[in-house]
Specification:
185 residues, alpha/beta, Oxidized Rhodanese, domain 1, five-stranded parallel β-sheet, 7 strands, 11% strand
Length: 185
Amino acid sequence: MRRPLAAALVAALLAAPALAQQQEPFEPEGYRADNYRAPVPATLAGARVLSTVEAEAIWRARSGAFINVLPRPPKPKNLPEGTVWRDAPRRNIPGSIWLPDTGYGSLPLAMEDYFQRGLARASRGDKAALVVIYCLADCWMSWNAAKRALDYGYSNIAWYPDGTDGWERAKLPTEEAKPEARPEQ
C-alpha cells in the first residue's frame, strides 16, 4: 500500500511545475491577436521588463522616452446629428507620447508607419536609445508594441507591463494625454 501512495506522491510532485507553467501566460512567437486584456507573460525576449520602481527611476532620471500604446476609443459611427462627442480623458506618465492603436496583433501599413514615426520621434532617431513602452496592467497591446519595436531594430526597449495602473497604484503623477496625430484609416 505504501508503494502506490509513494508513486502517486512522486507523480503529483513532478506534475506541479508543469501545471504552474501552464497557468502562467507563455511568450508567443508572434504577436497576440485577440483577447488583449488578459494576463501577460513575465518576459519579452530582447526587452527589459520593468517594475514600477524601475520605470519611476528611468522617468525621474529622464533617461528614457515613454510611449503609451493604449487604444483610443472610437467615435460611434451612428451618432445623431448635433450630438457632441468628447473623448474619454486619458492620463499618461508625464512626458509620454501616446501612440494609440499601435499594439494590435496586425497593423495596417499606415499604422505601422505611424508607429515607426512615433518611435523615431521618441528616440530622436537613435535606435539604441532607451524606449519604455506601456499601456495598462494585463494589456497585450504594450507587449505587442514592444515586440514590434524590437522587430523594427530598436535595441534598448523596456516593457512596463503594469502601465498606468501600476503607476497610479504607486501614487505617481500623471498628466492628461492627447494622442499623436495619426493617419485616417
